[in-house]
Structures are given as structure tokens and as C-alpha cells.
Amino acid sequence: MSRAIKKYSNDRQILKKHVSAIHAVADLTALQRKLVNALLYNAYDNLLTVRDHKISTRILCEMIGFDSKNISYLKEALVGIMETVMQFDIMEDDGEQSWEAMSLLTYVKVQGGTCTYRYEQSLAEKLFHPDIYSKINLSVLRNLRSSHALVLYENCNRYIGTGQTPVWDLEIFRKLMAVEGRYKEFKFLKRDVIMPAMKEVNSHSNILVDLLTVRKGRAVAALQFTVKTNPQLALLGMEEDDEISSSEAYKALLKQGVSKTLARSWMLEHGEEYVLDKIDLTNSLAASGNIKHSKAGFLKSAIEEDYHNENAVKKKALETAQATKVEREKLEHQVEALKMAQREAETSFRRSTAEIVEEAYEKLSGTQKEAVTAEFLRSLSSRVYVDAFKSGGWKDRLNFLDIRKFWEVRGLSLPSPSDWAQKNGSQEPEIIKAKIDELEAQLNKFVV
Q: In b/e form, how buried is each residue of 298-329, taking b as 16+ CB within 10 angstroms?
């Protein structure tokens, strides 16, 4: 069930990644690199305490911007990660280096829409150790398509605070970019690897990089990159907090002991209103002593099996009824105001027409007045109208339409309702009536 939130929020996901892993040399495809980062993000909070990590394949595919229907290709990519030996060149800021090699994943299983995977313990400890971290923005990784751009972004983003990377020897840089043994001439390395990667990073990430070269004689021997914030993409909200993690429901789930990944998955699947309803149900039953075992387990079942909160249902019904009442009363007030305006416009229009009629009548001679009056009386259909005219004269409201028609036949020019309204800055009575009919039709839809 999708409610408030329907799509994966891909603007602000942040991953802390060990610098040694960022500087790892591995011949991974762009998809595999995105998978490595997404899997680490999912497992990070429990790297040292949980052996097997799990994530919905749908969520995983959304995190990396991949077609979730092509599960076979996803499995091939995961196998490729398992078969790849990672070489870790740990480059400290003081220039010291050490080398290690290991497989990134030791176990992967995809079943029932869930991906289960496992890290070797020493690798988990290395990835989790909080000595030096670099923040990798997963929203950037999903937008970068080439593996060279991904590597360049991963290795430059950590230096955004200092403004430039260390100076890298060309051979080390070739290993870093997984082009060892190729592009012997720097001009080809620059043309085919560096410049396309820089263009992609500068166009689609939160940083801007520029190339600096160090020459030994006439040849380029090493290189370095300046790094600064991309002022355009920085405005897109590439921060640690996103729409989900800043929501009330997400924070409430974390307080209940739910993992960040599971909390995010529930928010994406069900939306904030649904999740808050289940949290309210869980808290209410726990407070009354009606949850016999695990509160967290009950919450999980309530969300995934859609337990209904009767109190919440009643509350929602009352809120709906109150909202309906407020809306109906609002429409009724609008109708009443329009009817008042309609009465005032009709009265003003009749008076204006009667004044023109009386002015024409007064210009007649005595004999003509008697003849005109007698002629009009003969045109009336009943005694009621005759008596009304004798009482109200040419201003009589009951005979207004007959009076108007009578004088127009005699050649008197009388304004139409629209002409009168335009001249007097008023609304035409018929237009007001149409608005009233429209609002009353809306009122009839409400169930009393």
C-alpha cells in the first residue's frame, strides 16, 4: 500500500565509508560499485553485531537507480562482487601506505524479494572502524553512470573540506581507476579517463573538481584535484537529512528500536500516516498491558499485516464527519451570501427599470396616461395582478416582467440585466443565480 510517500527519496542519502575502502583498487563495473555502497549503507549500523544483513531487492534497486525487474542481471552483479578480490591501498593524510587484499562479500542469497548478504568479520571491522571516514552521497552514486566517474567522486569527495586531494603518482592513479597497464601516455589517460569522469562528476554531483598536474621535466609524473562545493547541486538538498529521515514517523520508528533500513523501507512502502497509525496502536496496547511479548515484534506485524486501530478508526470517522460539517456550513454561508446579493441586485434592477418607465409615463398627457393604464390592466390575467398593480403602480414587483414587456412593445428602450450590471458595477442577477445553483448542487452531495 502506498500512501504519502510513493517513490524512493534519492536526494539526500549519505554513507560513511572507510577511506581505505574508498581508495580500494578493484575492477568493478559502475553497477557493482553502486551495489557495494548501497549494501554497506544498509548494513552499517549493525556491521559488528549482525552476521547476515537483509534488504528488500526493490529498495536496493531503487537505491542504485536500477531496473528492479532485471533480477538476473542483479544476481550476476552480486556474483561479480563476490568474485572480485579487493586490494586496499590505505592512503593516510601523512602519506603513509599499507596494502591488504580480501573478497568484498562472502555470501549472498536472493529469495522472496529479499537480498541476504554477509561480510568477512575483519572487513566488517575495517569498514565500521571510526578512525577516518568519508561521506559518500548515495544520491550522487545513482546518477553517475561510468565507473571512472564513480571512483573519481569517491576519492575526491572526502577532501571537500581541505579543497584539494593529495598528489597521486600516475601509476597509483591508474591502479585507482582500474586502468593499470593501459593509457601509458598521459594525454590519452587525460582524454579517455580523466576528462570524461570530471565532466560527469561536475555535472551530476555535489562537488566540482579540477585537474592539476605535476611535471618531471616535460612529462607529467603526478596529478592532483582541487575540490569545492557545486553551488548549483548544493541547492538540491544533498544533505544528511531527507524527507523520510526528518519525518515524525521515521524518528518514532527509530525510538521503537527499528533499524534505519527497515524504518525507511516501511516509510516508502506505506507512508507516514499509515506508520503513525500503527505506532499509535502499538503504544496504546502496550500501555494497557495487552501486548504479551515483544512490543517491537507486535509493531512489525501491525505494519506488515495491517492491524487496525479501532480507536484511530473512530477518531478518523469523527474527524471526517467534523470536516464534512465544516465544509457544508461553509457552502451554506456562501449560498446565503449569494442569495442576499441576488435579492439586492434584483431589487436594484427593478427600481432602475421602474424609474425609466415612470419617467416615460409622466411625459404622457392625462388622456394618454388613462389609455395606457387601461390597456395594461386589460393585459393582466387575474384579479390578483390587477389589485397588485393598482396598489404598486409601475413599480409593482409582482407585475415587473409584464410591465417591462408592455413598455418595450410600446418602443421604450430598457436596459438588459447585463447592461444594467455593467453600468452599475454589480453582478448580473442571472449570473448570481447560476453560482447559487452550482453551490446548492454541491450541498446536495453531502449525506445529512
A: bbbebbeeeeebeeeeeeeeeeeeeeeeeebe
Residue 193 neighbours by CB distance under 10 Å: 22
Q: What is the pLDDT of residues 299-334, one digit of tens each?
A: 888 888 888 766 666 676 777 788 888 888 888 898
Q: What is the mean pLDDT of residues 45-51?
A: 84
The distance of Cα 365 from the centroid of its chain, to the nearest Å, equals 78
Residue recorded with cell 524504518: 263
Signed CA dihedral, 255, 257, 260, 265: sign only: negative
Phi and psi angles of residue 171, each rounded to the nearest 5 degrees, phi first: -65, -40
Cα separations in angstroms, 358 against 346, 352, 364, 378: 18, 10, 10, 19
Q: How confident is the model at residue 5 (pLDDT cuts 50, 70, 90)?
A: very low
Q: Are the beta carbons of 268 and 247 closer than 8 angstroms?
A: no
Which DSSP state fits 113?
T
Query: Contact 269/1 with Cβ under 8 angstroms?
Result: yes
Residue-range domain boundaries for the chain: 14-236, 248-308, 314-443
Mean pLDDT (the chain, rounded): 80
* Percent helix, percent strand, percent coil in the chain, to nearest 5: 55, 15, 30
- Topology of domain 14-236, CATH: Arc Repressor Mutant, subunit A (1.10.10)
Alpha-carbon span 273 to 267, nearest angstrom: 9
Longest dimension (CA), the chain: 125
CB 149 within 8 A of CB 29: no
Q: Residues near 29 by Cβ (< 8 Å), separated by ≥ 6?
A: 77, 80, 147
